[in-house]
Design goal:
It comes from Hyaloscypha hepaticicola. With 243 residues, the protein is mainly α. It is built from six helices and two strands; from the N terminus they run E-E-H-H-H-H-H-H. The longest helix has 53 residues. It starts with 10 loop residues before the first strand and ends with a helix.
Length: 243
């Protein structure tokens, strides 16, 4: 036997993920209960949002409420992208036996999409782009909002379009396999399909959609105002020449 030979992973099919015959490398059931996992995740998210609220209220008390809400969203969104989804990107080959917090959270979520336990190429690529592109850019947009940076709205449009586009592809690839290949990745229970798979992801359709429309309107109004100023300037110049 070669000295550098590696042990092949144990492919496990004794699990409750869909499709039931899918093989998961070195799979171990979660050690923590669902309420504990979801409670910790919710508490961490709440702490991030509350911390952001306190900091923004102290450092930028005069910002409009809508701008503050946008900052809160981009901070929590960036944190989830960079740290939670980044964890998956970096550890996708060892998700099956993982027993740390993020690993168990991903295994719980995988009841709604088992592709997260099989290093699915699309999911891995999509999550990697989301984690290491949209994640950091979310924090940049949040910072740009605080100082009214001129690149805030262009960058906000890019991030929001990227998030929405990724979500559409995420839904579409799963639905394609479901209807055309008869492969179902989600368990049928309401919590998993409608709670985890649909609702928890659809949030990234709603808020980015609202912010995208807001930025497009802002840029459109700016160009309208610029066009009026340009037209008035030309008219005044023509009038002076006539006089």
């Amino acid at each position: 036997m070669a000295l550098n030979a590696t042990t092949a992973p144990l492919m496990v099919t004794d699990h409750h993920y869909y499709p039931l015959e899918v093989e998961i490398a070195n799979y171990l059931a979660n050690e923590w209960s669902v309420p504990v996992l979801l409670g910790i995740f919710a508490a961490v998210c709440a702490a991030i949002v509350c911390g952001t609220v306190v900091i923004i209220d102290k450092t930028h008390p005069n910002l409009p409420k809508g701008e503050k809400a946008a900052i809160w969203w981009f901070v929590i969104s960036g944190a989830i992208h960079l740290f939670f989804e980044g964890y998956f990107s970096l550890n996708h080959t060892r998700m099956g036996p993982a027993q740390d917090l993020f690993g168990q959270l991903w295994k719980e979520y995988a009841f709604s999409d088992s592709r997260y336990l099989t290093s699915d190429p699309f999911v891995l690529c999509m999550e990697t782009v989301t984690a290491f592109t949209w994640g950091p850019l979310c924090f940049v947009v949040a910072f740009f909002i605080t100082n009214s940076h001129p690149l805030r709205h262009p960058l906000q449009i890019i991030v929001c379009v990227g998030q929405i586009y990724g979500l559409i592809l995420y839904y579409a690839t799963s639905m394609f396999d479901h209807y055309y290949a008869q492969i179902t990745y989600s368990r049928p229970e309401f919590l998993y399909f409608w709670g985890y798979y649909f609702f928890m992801n659809f949030i990234w359709m709603v808020f980015p959609g609202i912010l995208l429309v807001s930025s497009v309107r802002k840029i459109a109004k700016t160009f309208q105002a610029l066009d009026r100023l340009t037209a008035n300037g030309k008219a005044n110049g023509h009038a002076k020449k006539t006089i």
